[in-house]
C-alpha cells in the first residue's frame, strides 16, 4: 500500500469521511487540497501533508483526528518528512506567525508548545502553499466565507507572493479577485478620503505602484508616494508591504481606484515653515544638477543652490554647506537659500 492509500485508510478509520466540512466532508476537502497541490507541481511530501493537514487540528479548524501522543501512527503511514509537515502546519499560531512569514527572519510560534523559532525558507514556502491550497478550496466551496474572508486572504497571499509558486499565486488571484456586481459594489462603497489597508503588489517599471485592496487593485502615481525626496517608489516602499492608503478617487468607468500615501503624512515644508526657518544652518548636498546643487535644508525640504550663487565653490555630493533660508515656496516645493 502506498503512502496516499495508507493515509486514506487511516482517515476513514478515524471518521474523516463523516465529519462535516465546507464542500461536503473533511475527507472530500482533504482530497481536493491534495489534488490542488498536485496541479501546482508540489513534491510528494507536500501533497501528502495536504491530504493529512487536519490530523492534529489547525488554528482555524479545532477538530483533530489524532492526539499528538499518537504522531507515530501518522508517520508510519505517510513517512516522517510528510508527518513533520503536517505537524508544522497544525502547530502554526496564525495570528503570530502569518504577518512576518514572507520575511527571512520572520518568527514562527508553535501553538502547542509555545516555542518560537525562525523557519527555513522551505518550511515557509511549504506553509504558504499549503495554506493557499486549503483556504482557496474552502472559499470556493462556501460563498459566505469567501465574502467574509476573501479580501483578507487576497492581501495575505499578495504579501506571501515571494513564497508562492507561480501556479499557486495565479490560483489565488483567480479565486479572490472580485468581478462583476461584486466588484462594482466594492467600488461604489469607496469614497474620497477613505482609509484602506492594502498590500503593494507591484511597483511597475514606469513607477506606478499597484496595490491589492482585497480582491480589487488600486493604483498610486509617483507623486503620491511621499512628500520626501526620492528617486523611485522602491526607495520608500517595497512589494509585499502592507500599508494604509487614502482613497483619492474612484473612476468606475475605467475601473480604477486612485490611492495616496502622501496624503497621510504631514507636509514637511509646512511643518518646517511653522517651526520658524530663519537663522544660519548647515545642510548636506544630496545631488548635483546642471544648474548647481541640491541641498537638504530639513527633513523633506530641499533647496537648489544655483551655480552662480556658489561663490566659486565646487561642492560634491555629501558635502555640507552653510546657509540661511530666505523663502519657502509651497508650489514649487523648494526653499530659497543664501550661502553664509
Automatic annotation (TrEMBL):
Q: Tell me where in this chain the S1 motif domain is found.
A: 193-262, 278-340
The transmembrane residues are none
Q: Does the keyword Ribosomal protein apply?
A: yes
Q: Cross-referenced SUPFAM superfamilies, in alphabetical order? A: Nucleic acid-binding proteins (SSF50249)
What are the record keywords, sorted? Answer: Ribonucleoprotein, Ribosomal protein
| SMART domains (alphabetical) | S1 (SM00316)
Q: Does the keyword Kinase apply?
A: no
Gene3D superfamilies recorded? Nucleic acid-binding proteins (2.40.50.140)
Which family does the record assign?
Answer: Belongs to the bacterial ribosomal protein bS1 family.
The molecule here is called DUF6817 domain-containing protein
Native organism is Streptomyces narbonensis
Q: What is the lineage of its organism?
A: Bacteria, Bacillati, Actinomycetota, Actinomycetes, Kitasatosporales
Amino acid at each position: 500500500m502506498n503512502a496516499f492509500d495508507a493515509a486514506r485508510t487511516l482517515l476513514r478509520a478515524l471518521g474523516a469521511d463523516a465529519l462535516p466540512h465546507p464542500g461536503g466532508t473533511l475527507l472530500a476537502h482533504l482530497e481536493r487540497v491534495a489534488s490542488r497541490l498536485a496541479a501546482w507541481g508540489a513534491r510528494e511530501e507536500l501533497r501528502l501533508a495536504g491530504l493529512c493537514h487536519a490530523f492534529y487540528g489547525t488554528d482555524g479548524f479545532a477538530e483533530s483526528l489524532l492526539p499528538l501522543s499518537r504522531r507515530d501512527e501518522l508517520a508510519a503511514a505517510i513517512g516522517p518528512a510528510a508527518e513533520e509537515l503536517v505537524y508544522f502546519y497544525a502547530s502554526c499560531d496564525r495570528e503570530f506567525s502569518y504577518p512576518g512569514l514572507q520575511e527571512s527572519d520572520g518568527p514562527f510560534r508553535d501553538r502547542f508548545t509555545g516555542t518560537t523559532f525562525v523557519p527555513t525558507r522551505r518550511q515557509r514556502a511549504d506553509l504558504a502553499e499549503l495554506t493557499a491550497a486549503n483556504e482557496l478550496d474552502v472559499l470556493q466551496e462556501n460563498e459566505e466565507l469567501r465574502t467574509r474572508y476573501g479580501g483578507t486572504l487576497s492581501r495575505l497571499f499578495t504579501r506571501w507572493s515571494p513564497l508562492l509558486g507561480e501556479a499557486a499565486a495565479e490560483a489565488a488571484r483567480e479565486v479572490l479577485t472580485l468581478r462583476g456586481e461584486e466588484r462594482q459594489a466594492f467600488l461604489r462603497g469607496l469614497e474620497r478620503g477613505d482609509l484602506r489597508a492594502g498590500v503593494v503588489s507591484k511597483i511597475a517599471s514606469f513607477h506606478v505602484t499597484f496595490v491589492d485592496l482585497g480582491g480589487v487593485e488600486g493604483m498610486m502615481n509617483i507623486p503620491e508616494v511621499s512628500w520626501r525626496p526620492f528617486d523611485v517608489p522602491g526607495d520608500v516602499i517595497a512589494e509585499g508591504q502592507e500599508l494604509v492608503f487614502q482613497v483619492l478617487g474612484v473612476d468606475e468607468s475605467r475601473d480604477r481606484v486612485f490611492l495616496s500615501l502622501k496624503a497621510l503624512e504631514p507636509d514637511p515644508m509646512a511643518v518646517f515653515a511653522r517651526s520658524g526657518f530663519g537663522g544660519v544652518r548647515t545642510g548636506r548636498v544630496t545631488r548635483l544638477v546642471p544648474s548647481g546643487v541640491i541641498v537638504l535644508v530639513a527633513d523633506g525640504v530641499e533647496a537648489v543652490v544655483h551655480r552662480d550663487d556658489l561663490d566659486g565653490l565646487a561642492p560634491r555630493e555629501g558635502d555640507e554647506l552653510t546657509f540661511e533660508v530666505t523663502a519657502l515656496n509651497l508650489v514649487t516645493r523648494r526653499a530659497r537659500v543664501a550661502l553664509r
